[in-house]
Write a structure and sequence with these properties.
single chain, 180 residues, alpha+beta, 7 strands
Length: 180
Amino acid sequence: IKDITTLVNDLLDLGRLEAGFDTRREIVQLENIIGYTLDVLGGQISSRGMIVRFAPSPNLPPLKANPLRLRQMLDNLIGNAIKYTPPGGELKVRVHAEGGQIILQVSDNGPGIPPVDQPRIFEKFFRGENVPDNVPGSGLGLSIVKSIVESHQGRIWVESTLEQGSTFFVVLPAYLSPTS
């Protein structure tokens, strides 16, 4: 039942995002939301004996974003990195500003994504051919992430090497306060 509820909620979320109903925006600091997400996922991280490296650049500019959607985006990206990395693996989260944009990188040293699958991983219900049978998921997480990123005028892509891991890149426009 829990899986069906999750699936229905994911589909509803995706529908709202794709229909453009997600209009709530606040000034937020992405590094604070990342810290909160890592705290929430801390139990999973420690139960798998994983090492997390999180080093935000100092003085990051804020974003104008929906903090709940950013949490959802990070839950999916970091949650996937935890889920697909073998116990004792390493997770890196980096965030820095460059040219009026915030660049987030979530890296793992898991099995990687086969090159043939990489163009399709953001499609609804798609799951890679090398996903172990015991790893749960509906194949909606990354399509939700992509919709959230695009609803915030951002871009997302992955770079992955088999047997070495994956890095997801998210680029979002920094919020520049209007000069009076």
